[in-house]
Amino acid sequence: MTFYTSHGTDTLKPFDHLVKQIRRPQDLAICEEKPSEDLWRIALATTDKEGLLSVIAGLLTAHGANIRTGDILTVPVLPGQNEPQPFSAARSRILDVFTFTLPSHKTEQHLAELCDDLSKHNREMADGGIDAVRDGLIDRVASAIKSQAPAGEQLLPVDIDIDNNLSETDTVLRITSQDIPGFLFAFANALALLEIDIEQATIRTEGGEVHDTFRIRDLHGRKITDKDKLQELRFACALIKQFAYLLPNCPNPGQAIRQFRDLASRLLEKPERAADFTSIKSAETMQTLASLMGVSRFLWEDFLRMQHENLFPLIRTRAEIEKTLDRQQWTDMLCEELRAGKTHEEKVRILNDFKDREMFRIDLRHITRTIGDVTFARELTALADVVVTQTADLCHATVASRFGHPRIDDEPCAWGILAAGKYGGSEMGFASDLELLFVYRGQGATDGSRSVDNSRYFEEFVRTFLKALKSRKEGIFEIDMRLRPFGSKGSLATSLRAFRKYYAVDGPAEQFERLAMVKLRPVAGDPSLLGEIIQVRDAFVFSGRPVNYVNILHLRKRQDRELVAPGRINLKLSSGGLVDIEYFLQALLIEHGVDNPELRVPNAMRGLKRLEAKGVIPPAQADDIRRAYRCFRRTIDALRAVRGNAKDLTLPLPDSPDYLYLSRRLGFEAPEQLAAEIAWSRDLSRNLWTAVG
């Protein structure tokens, strides 16, 4: 065969007999050698397939191979060659030779396992294409490179040369950089996304530095001369090299690889977008990008959904992530942006874009460990307060334009919005919802030409509010109004009189509502009315009636039995879950808040601190509660960061990859350490009730 001479790949000549053995796409011919004490060599031939090089490189990485040399060649079927019918659909073959080292403990048996893997994956690709093997291979590569995380996070110098003059048929691409695990796998994936075929490649590693040369063509077998395509190619070379270097530091490298593919696909839809990413010059920026991809699926979906070119400055500029904003600054920013809106619909869009962008920035601050758990919760709560307040003002203006303003006699009808739950306690985290309660002063009518009763006005106001404040995803900034009197069967907005009647000591409100009202907190509206609402709450919650511990324990058993999947652990609702700590603290705050108004606080940890200061909870027990509470909250946040669902708080199975990735996100060296911490926290939480029930 003359193709060796034309391509200058003499290394491949001894293995041309392998190519002659290929008759079907499922065929794979392999030759194994051991040229020296430390080196291994395999040569393989099969039919050319989309993504084949990435699979071969991925399997080498997964088996711990450190490639020293590689020679890769596509062998075309020349006109006039007589090929068997089953082979007619695959008009070319590949011949690859790799020389590599293996970890010292690996033997000939491990090499045999690698060859078996190559044969198996080749057959699966012949039958089902690259999709049949990609996901499983990504996980294996991710697991292999995780153990090879770099000590530092510096950017690697990458020398990229693209030459269209050296060959009449091929574009020649040369890359020189530091050797890193998994690069060939990531790079081959990137070229597949770019719809570029590798005709030949020469890979050489010398002294920890790689010198890779690729001869490439487009899918039509032509040189790559289009300016935009060359820009995409240069972008892919630089970014993938850096990204592959940082992958081992990701809690979930496999997820990062998948999401990087999503990003590359989006970028390459519009070549001008790639220019943004070629401007990356900071190791911190690259680490932020890798962290975002390797930690949170739902945030990454947000990044793509919310026009990533608008969010990219948050990632590229570290100062944007480190910048701390307060409630007033967010208010000023949002008011300024809302001035650009001419209609209600335009203002709603601006408001939600602002909310999503700033939530993304706060989430990113937490993922990159710029801020801790307490600051994270405080910032999300402050942003929510600003957004709720501005949404209310916007919706009142819209509804009043139809009906006029609500009044009682000749005075404006006051209104208020209050928060409960995690939002009320300033304890928000990833994917938190907003528990809201809407209250107005009382009966009357609006002063517009289409006058309606105040009750009708405020029902319309809440409906407009619910439509205006859009949820990013189920459970994320989703509005929960179940705490209103009579729950989902009650009116959307409640008059002060109805609120007072429902939450009277002898009213219909139940025990769990008494616990929940501990976290009630004013957010927006008339200060005088909000003060009266809190007085009604205090008279109901801190009335001096004994706390019904039997009822609480009965409720907890029902939650565990009816709301938790059999055999699984729900970090919130299972026996010994977060709710046990929350209910226990709320019960003590109710008991002792009767004579100590300073204990009437909505935040759980602030309440614990004050209970400890009053001597209600001993210091040692208080420290244990803090530890367990932090374990639950951090683990729940880590689950939500991936799933983006406030309602799914079920732990992955202990022997699953998801449990491994969860432990990594939380900083544990092994999953068993996380399991032990959760077991300790559940025991502590469960045993809180021992003294009372």
Annotate the secondary structure layout.
Blueprint lengths: L2 H5 L8 H5 L7 E6 L6 E8 L4 H11 L3 E11 L15 E10 L6 H21 L5 H13 L12 E5 L7 E8 L4 H11 L2 E11 L2 E10 L8 H20 L6 H17 L4 H5 L4 H13 L1 H9 L2 H9 L1 H5 L4 H12 L5 H24 L5 H31 L2 E3 L2 E2 L2 E6 H4 L9 E7 L4 E2 L7 H15 L10 E2 L12 E3 H7 L8 H6 L4 E5 L1 H15 L7 H15 L14 H16 L10 H10 L5 H25 L13 H9 L5 H17 L6
Parallel strand pairs: 12-14, 12-15
Antiparallel strand pairs: 1-2, 2-4, 3-4, 3-7, 5-6, 6-8, 7-8, 9-10, 9-13, 11-12, 11-16
What do these coordinates show?
It is a single chain. The chain has 693 residues and is an alpha+beta fold. The chain is built from 27 helices and 16 strands. It has 3 domains: 3-269, no CATH class; 324-541, Beta Polymerase, domain 2; 549-687, Up-down Bundle (Four Helix Bundle (Hemerythrin (Met), subunit A)), CATH 1.20.120.330. Strands 1-2-4-3-7-8-6-5 form an 8-stranded antiparallel β-sheet. Strand 7 (196-206) and strand 8 form a beta hairpin.
List keywords for this structure.
Four Helix Bundle (Hemerythrin (Met), subunit A); alpha+beta; elongated; 51% helix
Summarize the structure.
The chain is of the alpha+beta class.
Estimate the helix proportion, in percent.
40-55%
Beta-strand fraction estimate: 5-15%
What is the rounded distance between the termini? 86 Å
The biggest beta sheet is recorded as: 8 strands, antiparallel
Radius of gyration, in Å, reads: 31 Å
Q: Give, in spatial order, the strands making up the sheet with the most strands.
A: 1-2-4-3-7-8-6-5
Number of strands: 16
Mean pLDDT: 83
Class from secondary-structure proportions = alpha+beta
General shape: elongated
Described by its quaternary structure, the protein is: single chain
Number of helices: 27
Poorly predicted regions are 1-8, 84-90, 150-155, 296-300, 302-307
Query: How many distinct domains?
Result: 3
